Inverse folding.
């Protein structure tokens, strides 16, 4: 198999994307922790739960959304549960697995964190782009996510 190496333009774009992603993730995580006392995974769990009609999900579904193993998520949820942000209970329907529920304290933590987090996303990314670049970024990310989410064991 012949390797299709990146040309100079492609390599510049790829390296720029990787550097941007690392720096952006680092800065957003730092600000979220500093301003709201939440880690990025905390925020992801809380926001994923808040977007469901009953503010609860099976642990396995939440793990799939976060692209984490059930074990890793379970350990993280234990820490969040200790802080009163979520609760866990056995799944009554089948006795297997557990249901994770957003608590009122978790809802308040998310509502307190969201304005600052959105401001940081704007400051470090959205407001730096033109409307056309926002459209292009949306199209690009959805295309890549759509392709990767179709792989077995993945959910978009």
């Amino acid at each position: 198999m012949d390797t299709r190496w990146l040309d100079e333009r492609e390599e510049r774009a790829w390296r720029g994307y990787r550097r941007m992603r690392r720096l952006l993730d680092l800065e957003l995580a730092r600000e979220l922790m500093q301003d709201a006392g939440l880690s990025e995974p905390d925020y992801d769990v809380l926001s994923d739960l808040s977007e469901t009609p009953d503010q609860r999900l099976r642990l396995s579904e939440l793990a799939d959304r976060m692209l984490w193993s059930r074990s890793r998520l379970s350990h993280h949820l234990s820490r969040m549960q200790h802080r009163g942000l979520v609760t866990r209970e056995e799944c009554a329907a089948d006795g297997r697995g557990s249901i994770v529920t957003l608590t009122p304290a978790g809802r308040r933590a998310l509502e307190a964190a969201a304005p600052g987090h959105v401001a940081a996303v704007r400051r470090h990314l959205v407001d730096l782009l033109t409307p056309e670049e926002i459209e292009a970024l949306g199209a690009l990310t959805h295309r890549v996510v759509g392709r990767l989410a179709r792989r077995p064991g993945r959910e978009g």
Q: What stands out?
A: Helices lie at 8-36, 40-50, 59-66, 70-82, 104-124, 131-149. The CA atoms of residues 130 and 136 lie 10 Å apart.
